[in-house]
Amino acid sequence: MQTAIKTNTSFFSVEKHSTKSYAQSSLPAILSLFSGAGGLDLGFKLEGFGISLAIDISHAAIKSHKRNFPNSNSVCANLIDLGPQGVLDALLNNIPPKTKLGVIGGPPCQGFSRANNQSTADDPRNTLPKLYIEIIKKLQEVFEIEFIVFENVLGIRDKKHAQTYSSLIHDIDLLGFDLNEHELCATDFGVPQTRKRIILAAMSKGKGYLDVVPRKNTGIFTVKEAIGGLEPPVFYSKDIKSTEIPVHPNHWTMKPKSYRFSTPMEKWSTSRRSFKVLKWDRPSPTIAFGNREIHVHPSATRRISIYEALILQGFPKNFVLEGNLSEQVEQVSNAVPPPVARSVAAAVKQSLLKERHEF
User: Fold this and answer.
1) What angle in degrees, to the nearest 10, is found between the helix axes of 79-92 and 128-139?
2) What are the sequence ranges of the domains in the chain?
């Protein structure tokens, strides 16, 4: 019978998932593809995995990754340009051949997102899962790939993307992995956000590894519990200095310009997703989307700050994003909530160590 673990927003005071203590070197090294600022990476780091190399196309995201993972190598590169051989070469600069390796990452999801009404099966971004597979195949020539973790939106399984998704599943099997497919919601892992994602966790075949079953956690559930006690953020200006931002370097947001912010909320049009107002007594919807259209604070007087978004994503309070406001919105929007990532990492570790726990 499962018993949930209690977490909180500073979390990571969370109980150990395993009954043993393992040196970081006893676990496979991690290659993080499409790493972003490192939400997925953070979950694996907290479970004792070392992030040997992280690659992302965004300069700001890699700057954030370097700040928050100072002992890892973070590289800004376009994986399409780099290609499988380029990834292999970069990894060989960090770890020796035959190293045991885990590959994690979530290719950009906009082409599969249900929020993108213009998404089509032939969106160029939809080729990235195939690239992910090609990179793993190349790495298998030199390294021992023990597991892979692939994250994406639910829309990747929709009918119009069926060929892409079925090819992904088929290719994972051909590469020699036993697949575990999960649809996870962040609210089941102590994160106050109804963010649903597909997680594919695949373990190397023939080694007796157990199924990967992420363990659910309890924790903060509502927006009020998460950010209700924070003082207001500062509004963005070109000349703002980090020392002028209260509470946290990312506690800033855009100055309200729309007439809506000075109009009673009951008069707002509810049809525009770009003005979605958070409710104090509910979890947040998926935290943000493009063009700085981060959700509106429950007061309906402003948008939430980047720091408030980080908290609603389950990031620890010492995690800081670099870049301008738009770049920070993109990073927090694209991130895997770290508590979800940690539960996945803990389940992978259990599988690797062939420990079957009864909770």
Assistant:
1) 20
2) 5-221+338-352, 223-334
Pairing, β 252-253 against β 234-235: parallel
Fold of 5-221+338-352: Rossmann fold (3.40.50)
Backbone angles phi, psi at 143, to 5 degrees: -115, 160
Structure tokens at 293: 């259209």
Q: What is the largest CA-CA distance in the chain?
A: 63
What pLDDT digit, counting tens, does each position of 101-136 carry? 999 998 874 444 434 455 444 454 457 888 999 999
Q: What is the sign, positive or negative, of the torsion defined by CA atoms of 94, 97, 99, 105?
A: positive
In this predicted model, what pLDDT tens digit does every residue of 35-60 receive, in sequence order? Answer: 999 999 999 999 999 999 999 999 99
As assigned by CATH, the class of the 223-334 domain is: alpha beta
Look at residue 157 in the predicted model and tell me its pLDDT.
Answer: 62
Cβ partners under 8 Å of residue 211, min gap 6: 178, 180, 351
Alpha carbon 306 to chain centroid, angstroms: 16
- The rounded distance, in Å, linking the Cα atoms of 121 and 252 is 37
191-240: pLDDT as tens digits: 999 999 999 999 999 999 999 999 998 888 999 999 999 999 999 888 88
The SS3 call for residue 194 is: strand
Give strand pairing partners of 148: 103, 202
Helix (H, G, I), strand (E, B) or coil at 161: helix
> Facing residues of 103 across strands?
31, 148
